[in-house]
Amino acid sequence: MYADEVSVDIPCAELLHLCEGRCCKLDVCAEARTGDSKVVQWVEGAGGWRLRRADDGYCVHSDPDARTCTIYDVRPDDCRAFDCRKDSRIWADFDELVPAPWFAIDAAQD
What we know:
Helix content: 10-25%
Radius of gyration: 14 Å
Number of strands: 5
Number of helices: 3
Strand order of the largest sheet: 1-3-2
Largest sheet: 3 strands, antiparallel
Structural class: alpha+beta
Order of helices and strands: HEEEHEEH
Distance between the termini: 35 Å
């Protein structure tokens, strides 16, 4: 389906109860829209395109109750390629499964 078929092998479903989908609060920006443009909601900004966000700061495609991606099969390439394991906004220690404090992700969005 995707030209580069980028994907990171992280057991997201198994970790979701710990990380609470923090990656879905990060800005996903692209010079060109990727994913299924009939499904993926983008907004145009100064630096290109960004995934639309809901009022709670999460991507609009993040289910507010389960925090799962509602467009997982057609998600943008940047989402497919994102590797949270070494991202200090997501994990204080991935190997020990210790999530970063919430202020780490909230500060990144200011």
